[in-house]
Amino acid sequence: MTQLVTGCTLDCPDCCSMVAVPRQDGTLSIQGNPAHPFTQGLICGKGKNFVQRLQSSERITTPLVRRNGTLRKASWDEALSVCAAKIDALRATPEKMLHIRGAGTRGVLFDAAGELPARLRMAATHGSLCDETGIEACKADFGSLNMNHPHDLFNADRIVNWGRDISRSSVHLAKIVNEARKKGTQVLLISPCPSGAAGYADEVITVRPGTDRFLAAAAARRLLTRPGFRQRLLRCSANADAYLACLDAMDEHALLTACDVSTAALEKLTDWYADTDAAVSTLLGWGLQRYIRGAQNVRHINALAMISGHIGKNGAGVFYNISSSRNFNRQWMQDLPEPSRRLSLPRIGQELAGAAPPVELVLCRGINFVNQCPDSHTTAAALRHAFVIVLDAFMNDTAALADVLLPCSLMLEREEIVGSFMHNQINYCAPVFPPPGECRDDFDILDELGSRLSEPVRLPDRETCLRRALDSPLLQTTLSRLRQEGFATAEHPFIAYEGMRTDHQDGLFHCVAELSPDKEDSGDYPFFLLTLISRNTLHSQIPAGMQQGLPELAAAPCAAQAAGIADGEAALLCTPGGQMQVTVRFDPAIHPSAVRLRRGGWVSRGWGANGLTAPLVTDAGEGAAFYSQKAAIKKLQAEPPHPQA
Ligand code: SF4
């Protein structure tokens, strides 16, 4: 058996190409594909260990239909007939049906399966649980979402990493930064929780959570007093006056107090950006935007990079991300009918509870949204009034509420073509394992569901969907070539916004014009609850075996001790929305106003942070402002003494 080229379709920027290598015993080993120009044979633990997920005894491998309150095994014929009858009954009122899809798995065929709910004009969601706020912020500043090629970081003399935990979010970015540092690149990390990325930095500034805009504004104010920088602002931006006015709204002392950064640290940051002989790159973290003022955080950092001239040159650019679909033909999507209405994803619980007319059917795939969206309990309660169809492989917080659960195949079991939100390759992902039991991929399931409707809706065949996606001027490949070679490269300039010319019509940078203070603390909930990315799992794709005991909550020793809690002690994590038990671990590097929980734990196992979070929304792109959630930690009450017999 020859080795097969496949790839990872998880919601990760790296988009690794993989090879399935036969072992002597006939089984397959999943390894990185050394021929891939960007991922170069390196894959992370999430990809390496995915086979264990495929083989998990917790997999759902047959359709399940709820009868008398209990999910019971059913045939595909029965399960799809039940779903088709429900959809037929609501066909004339598509606004009563909601399609929720996520990025738990990605790819051209996964997207193409969405043609069924789109043709039915089911309601859809808007907003984002992750990067949309930052994307909107970058588009507002630059007129598009773009960045230099990640390998341009090798050309940087300095990298300012504004909070990206590259030790967990991207093994390839971590490798690039490591190699750049070996060649002499200096890295300054700015973060409220620096312990992850500090190993990839030469210097660290610890900042109060969500206040990076104040630090960036303070550095910009200083830069603008130095020769040449104000002139660049006036020359390269469309609205310098509005930007300068917002910088003047707070003096330096107020800005530094707001972000809890010393004058010496500000001086260092200013000096880094002020060095016009050096090439300075800016890495935007993917937590900056997860605050109520998330777009302002991103935009003030972008403005600082622009004023300092560190954009559009070798080694100098702002790195957020790129669209993973930018290299594909997406015209077919634009030709689909508009959804009958849109509900906010970050506020989905409230939206479902208050929808008029009510949502009577939910079709969910690629996302465990009860778990992943804020306010899990409101979402779960609202779902009890709808007929819920879930495509999933595990009995997670959303699947447990399904009326019909349709078992789907996972990556390495389904054919896909997928793009990256970091590099310019598209990857072919061959199915290398047969799906277990009766599992089928989303495309197959929704195609058959559509065919069973009283007025059938058929998807185009798979080959057509794959071919039309590749029909793009950016791709010089064919489906058969891609299947053979495993990847194709789309051509894009190595440097984005070369010569400081943005993609706005006027070619200028459009500055942020607001610098909003944070709301005053209530005092009862002094900590920002930061639910950060994990190293070994993505989203809520966490095996039960990893959710034993209590989840760990990192806190600054002084903060925990002030609550009378020792390192390793069980405690209560409380928000106005609820409480959960955690084990407190001291982290001397974390800002004293932050506590950190790794995200994705299941509510049903007592590990789900979103059972505690409110549906807060960011200032652009309807993003979930997860990190603006305030929390307290409290000592567990001692068990009351047992009454005497
Ligand atoms: S999770 Fe990311 S880094 Fe890991 S194998 Fe998949 S694409 Fe590669």
From TrEMBL:
- SUPFAM superfamilies on file: ADC-like, Formate dehydrogenase/DMSO reductase, domains 1-3
Name it: Molybdopterin oxidoreductase
Supply the alphabetized keyword list: Iron, Iron-sulfur, Metal-binding
Please give the Gene3D superfamilies that the UniProt record associates with this protein.
Answer: 2.40.40.20, 3.40.50.740, ADC-like domains, Dimethylsulfoxide Reductase, domain 2, Formate dehydrogenase/DMSO reductase
PROSITE patterns documented for this protein: 4FE4S_MOW_BIS_MGD (PS51669)
The 4Fe-4S Mo/W bis-MGD-type domain covers 1-58
Query: Which GO MF terms does the UniProt record name?
Result: iron-sulfur cluster binding; metal ion binding; oxidoreductase activity
Source superkingdom: Bacteria
